[in-house]
Design a protein that fits this description.
The chain has 356 residues and is of the alpha/beta class. The chain has 13 helices and five strands. 37% of the residues are buried. This is Transposase IS4-like domain-containing protein.
């Protein structure tokens, strides 16, 4: 009896090995399911593009003002610890405007002065004040709350997510794809590891490791936990082979999701305490095409990263590392706000923080 069970296990393992080999050799090819969705409504697309600037000015004003109320910072005294000399909400608005336009501190001072009435900023401030704002704790708190609020419109709608990493150039010469392996000192790029929704492509969680060559998998747990805290449900997590492990499969299962991590040769069906691991492999063998369709939903995440980079062409300008990370995070906030603007015009997504 034991020999029969062992033989059955060996046969299953041989099948798995054959399937993975076929996947690597392109014998098992991913065939996308024919889409039944309608074509792009170009009039709505045009409307989204035309209205983006107006939306961003309104969104930045309203979302920052709401964030201040939610944090009760409007009740904090002028002499509270870490409070900047100018209202922190005004500085946060200045940072978001600067990163949206991708301009230097001096040019950003002019943009703030130009849009201050629309942004609800009472008093202009110098470019040096804006530069120092990237260090202020109250400003950081506001930006973190803004980031959370940008996801409110989709938190009950998005259920599928995928993690991935990329590099944001610190220099105009930087190209992540070409230069990441030759950048020996790691100063050419800031590493960004993020979790994105595969449907709406909003960033749900993000980390900026100090080491630009940091492996992505160790950050998976914190990204997943933050995403689970924000969204109502998680049905599926898909990721490349860098995230393939029993521990990560268990983490996905613990938040109610199904893991789809790209498979490597040499892996086994042995549970070693992880039912989620074995179930993932058995699902792959049962219906490879459906499994691959679920996995390849992560291609939308790669599209999201591409949109992020095309939307912020200027390299990160800050020389001080902590300010550079704050600069990168402000871009993430702006990216999410731009995505909400597009979804609002193209798909009728309500925007809860807009006043009136």
């Amino acid at each position: 009896m034991n020999k029969m069970k062992l033989m059955a296990k060996n046969i299953q393992q041989m099948r798995l090995d054959a399937f993975i080999k076929g996947l690597k050799n392109k014998e098992i090819k991913y065939v996308p399911k024919e889409s039944s969705s309608s074509k792009i409504d170009w009039s709505k697309y045009d409307k989204a593009q035309v209205n983006e600037l107006k939306d961003m000015i309104i969104f930045i004003k309203d979302v920052v003002d709401k964030a201040v109320v939610r944090l009760s910072l409007d009740e904090a005294g002028e002499g509270s610890r870490g409070r900047p000399p100018y209202p922190p909400e005004d500085l946060a608005k200045g940072i978001l405007i600067q990163q949206y336009f991708g301009v230097s501190n001096r040019v950003a001072e002019g943009f703030v002065d130009l849009f201050k009435e629309k942004l609800g900023i009472e008093e202009s401030f110098s470019y040096k004040t804006l530069e120092r704002a990237y260090d202020y704790p109250h400003v950081a708190m506001i930006l973190m709350e803004v980031f959370k609020m940008t996801q409110d419109p989709v938190k009950d709608k998005e259920t599928k997510f995928s993690p991935d990493g990329t590099g944001i150039p610190n220099s105009i010469k930087g190209n992540w794809e070409k230069d990441s392996k030759s950048d020996e000192d790691g100063k050419g790029f800031t590493k960004m590891i993020a979790m994105l929704g595969t449907t709406n492509q909003l960033i749900s969680a993000v980390r900026f490791p100090d080491n630009p060559y940091a492996h992505e998998s160790p950050y998976f747990e914190s990204l997943l936990e933050e995403t689970a805290e924000t969204y109502s449900a998680i049905d599926q997590i898909s990721g490349d082979a860098a995230y393939l492990s029993r521990d990560n499969c268990d983490l996905v299962e613990s938040v109610g999701g199904t893991p789809h991590f790209y498979l490597k040769e040499g892996i086994t069906l042995k549970r070693e305490g992880s039912w989620a691991w074995t179930d993932m492999l058995l699902d792959f063998m049962k219906d490879p095409q459906q499994w691959l369709r679920d996995f390849h939903s992560r291609s939308n995440v790669e599209s999201g990263f591409s949109t992020f980079k095309r939307g912020f062409l200027a390299p990160l300008r800050k020389c001080i590392h902590r300010r550079r990370k704050a600069e990168a995070f402000a871009r993430v906030c702006d990216y999410n706000l731009k995505r909400v603007s597009r979804l609002h015009h193209q798909e009728g997504l309500p925007v809860p923080w807009v006043a009136g």
